[in-house]
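User: Structure with magnesium ion, tokens only please.
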Amino acid sequence: MLQEQEAHAAQMEQTFIAIKPDGVQRGLISEIISRFERKGFKLVAIKVVVPSKEHAQKHYHDLKERPFFNGLCDFLSSGPVVAMVWEGEGVIKYGRKLIGATDPQKSEPGTIRGDLAVAIGGNVIHGSDGPETAKDEINLWFKPEELVSYTSNAEKWIYGMA
Ligand code: GDP
Ligand code: MG
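Assistant:
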């Protein structure tokens, strides 16, 4: 039992997930949150913010050479974003699976973008693409004290440690 718990703790990860302004305006907040929640991932931070353009530029800094960079940053800072940190085993990689491919035309049905979006400029959600970006993005969007550490009652059932 102790070994199971230690292995579980070692595999715990956090990822940064944001519902973009189009997802908020389209009333998709609860739909998107429920997909992560029902899977068994744990919400450890959440806030509604209108990011500044400078903040959006920092968030998307690795895309600064791309032709769509300026429009993308204008868009992200155009209205409320729901910024979140989700925690769980494998949440970084599996979060990307829940989200689906960047271009909703290529996202599989069953994914968030596959089910809820049509165009790349309106793909409703952001998710960190790896452990390093997850760490950087969480630090960019949240202060450490905004993250809550807790054990959910469901965890032992979710991870098969009951
Ligand atoms: P993601 O990690 O799946 O969100 O994709 P990227 O990190 O490659 O790109 C970040 C965001 O930029 C995407 O979610 C889209 O909103 C936008 N984007 C990416 N590629 C394109 C493109 O070719 N054209 C336009 N207009 N937007 C794009
Ligand atoms: Mg990305």
